[in-house]
Request: fold
Amino acid sequence: MSTEPQSDAKPARRSGVSAAAIAAAEAADTLRVTYIGETSGVWGPGSGSGDVSGFDGLKGVVELPPQSRPPYGSWFDEAIAEINSEVGAAVSRVFVHRGELTLFTSTTRLSELMRLLRDDAHLRFEVCVSVSGVHYPEQSGSELHVIYELLSITHNRRLRVEVAVPERDPQVPSVTATYPMANYHERETYDMFGIIFDGHPSLTRILMPDDWIGHPLRKDYGLGGVPVRFDGAEVPPPDQRRSYLL
Amino acid sequence: MSTQPPGIWLTSAEHLARWLRKTSIWPLTMGLACCSIEMISYGGPRVDAARWGQEVFRASPRQADLMIVSGRLSQKMAPVVRRLYDQMPEPKWVIALGACASSGGIFNNYALVQGCDHVVPVDIYVPGCPPRPDQLVDAVFKLRQLIATGADGKGAIK
Reply:
């Protein structure tokens, strides 16, 4: 069964496996790559086979990386040992990819994990460089991910923390109490993805106008272009161009 | 000045008023994106806007005559640009600098207004991405010609 896009004005076509299959794969063997779906095509549904640039033939595979097995290498092992000794099972999954460490956690343990990462002498991640979001519409139950990039100036290390929440209840505790610099980043993530950060001092839109409806960087939000009228021609928006089908 | 014919003994006063206006246009800083860099270098030493009376880029719309909209106009910024335009005293002119300010440029999405003429009346459009400062010089000189022949703003001349 392939999951259909929710609106028909999407920038790329995605086909995927069912949510049940994803959940089963994740539960069964977290060491294997979890296949989410494929993306194909760059232009919208109006393109058909008329595109001559070749970009419409691009295909990508969307997948979750496999959980890494210990030992993780370089400083990761001692950091994770320190985290596990202090906050128990806060980290549910660990990904090591291309020399970068990503910790997967849950919304209930996020605040205490962040506090530990900032305060512990061996970890000391003083800077939260950015808070951003990702939307995986095929991954039912945890469609919206929030990514925290942390930097330790003391130890010259970088770390990533990731949390996943469902679209129907996208609430994540805010980290502004621990990292005040995440204030505007969380507002942007709310604006673009609709993730609600509990405890944020003023969670309002920051990039779009205050009364905007919709969250633009979600996968089911169309490009939103309008046709532009010139003298003697009207140019359609980019996701509706390049259609040579009559 | 009114648009009615001035009559014989006011003609020279009319010419004088237009000459005064065109030789001391004070632009308003409306640098929104990359084109504002070109506007900055337009006021810089190499292409010196002070040569024709535009050395003061006013930050306050109450003191400005010309709004050079340079750069992408986002949906969030559009009411602000309109409010600043309304706060400028008459006579006032608008130059749309660059492709994004003229028609949305290479962007056509949820965030950007497709051309600042959706919110303010534009007198001169300058195409380019970004246009060289020399093109802005050309636009300003065309505007000076418009002023000399009696365009009193509000995008009257297309």
User: Anything to note?
Assistant: Residues 71 and 77 of chain A are 6 Å apart (CA to CA). The two ends of chain A are 31 Å apart (CA to CA). Residues 76-87 of chain A form the longest helix (12 residues). The helical segments of chain A are 19-28, 76-87, 110-119, 183-193.
